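Workshop exercise sheet. Pairs work together: one partner reads the sequence aloud, the other fills in the structure field after running the prediction. Swap roles for the next sheet.
Pair: D.N. / O.F.
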Amino acid sequence: MTAPDFQSWAAAGQQRIEAFLQRALPQPDIAPQRLHAAMRYAVLGAGKRVRPLLAYAAGELSQADPERVTVAGAAVELIHAYSLVHDDLPCMDDDVLRRGKPTCHVEFDEATALLVGDALQSLSFQLLGEYRLADDAKMQLDMIKLLAIAAGSRGMAGGQAIDLAAVGKTLSVPELEFMHIHKTGALIRAAAVLGGRCGNGLSEAEFAHVDTFAKAVGLAFQVVDDVLDAEAPTATLGKTAGKDAEQGKPTYVSAMGITQAKALAGELREQALKAIAPFGARGARLAQLADFIVLRQF
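Structure field:
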């Protein structure tokens, strides 16, 4: 049987995640209705679902049950969605557009948006505890711990704190890398590792290759985001273009220029592909995702 092309594979994964999230999120007619409606507004019907796709690709590599990977991918996506809701708040980036529609606090209100983020994070960990994701209970506990670290002060939240503190300052490329390894990269790495941990087909040495791949892809994702923020129009981005420069936020573009930033994205892509080269054809989906992330729109 011929494997589906990347676009068909990705579309199937996106539909699977969307259907699961539709079921997992509280229905809007359940009290408190406004909060539940806002949670669904923030999560459903938009986004590329890159993190769940990484989980699926790593899960295929480890021969994981796709249903288990769906839960893990959805848990990561809920953390990601909550981070976007909070990131857009007036006390953070103060943005009015996300994924082509008004941000959650604009569509609802600030207090509701704050609670949406809190509730989505809680739901993420509820899913990880509610479903069986690994044959070994200790492994599942380790998976929960992994996502908690990736989302917390040593991961995404810590990276956001560094980002906020850096507004108006000039950061070196190594300093930017440190910030984004936490802010963006931690959750991307968690998605790949969690997807792989849902199966039993990888050795620890092979997991190290997956982690190295995800680290490079996570940084590349941010570099590309910085370039697109500088070059792409708002309609293409689905969020306010040029906001980083307007707010004086240090980016790869401000640190090294657009040409060098694009070159760095290419170098990170090569690092990612090199990390999974030992898998040969088995790593094809991960390689396709690296291209999807790095080559999007430039």
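Discussion prompt: The chain is about 70% helix and 0% strand. What would you look at next?
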